[in-house]
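Request: Have a read of the protein record below and say how the chain folds.
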Amino acid sequence: MMRWIGRLVGFVLVALGVIGVVFVVGMRTKSPLVLDNIRRFNRGVTNPRVLKSAGSPGASASVIHHVGRTSGRSHATPVGPFAVGDSFVIALPYGPGADWVKNVLASGTATLVHEGSTIPIDRPEVVPLGLVIDDLPVSQQKVVRVFGVEECLRVQRAG
C-alpha cells in the first residue's frame, strides 16, 4: 500500500512539473493554445476571486474599470500596476491583444482602483518593456523576464 501511495505521489509531482514547464514555455513563446487556456481559466476562476480584494490597501492586485469597445458595458479587470511618477505601468503577459487592453486603448480613459484610491487615468500607450524595466521593482523585473513579457501599458493620471 505504501509503495502504491509513493508511486501516486511521484506521478502527481512529475505531472505538476510538466504542467509548470508547459505553462512557462507557453507564456514565453506566446503559444495561442496556452495563452487562450490561461486567459479562459483566469476569466472564469482566478479573476472573480482576486476582484474581491483587489484595489484595497495591501492587496496583491488593483482593478482597472473600463468600457467595452463594442458592447459599451462596464468591466472590471484585476491588474498589477506600478506607480512611476504620475503614470502607472502594467505588464502585459498576454500582450496587447487582451480585451481589457483593447478597451482602454479604444476609449483612451479608464479608472484604476489602487491601494484604496480611485484614480482616473488616460493617455494609454503600449510601450516596449525595455523602456520601463528599470522603473519596476527588482522582483517584478525577474518575473517579467521569466514569462517573456515584452510590452507594458503605460497610463497617466488624468487631470
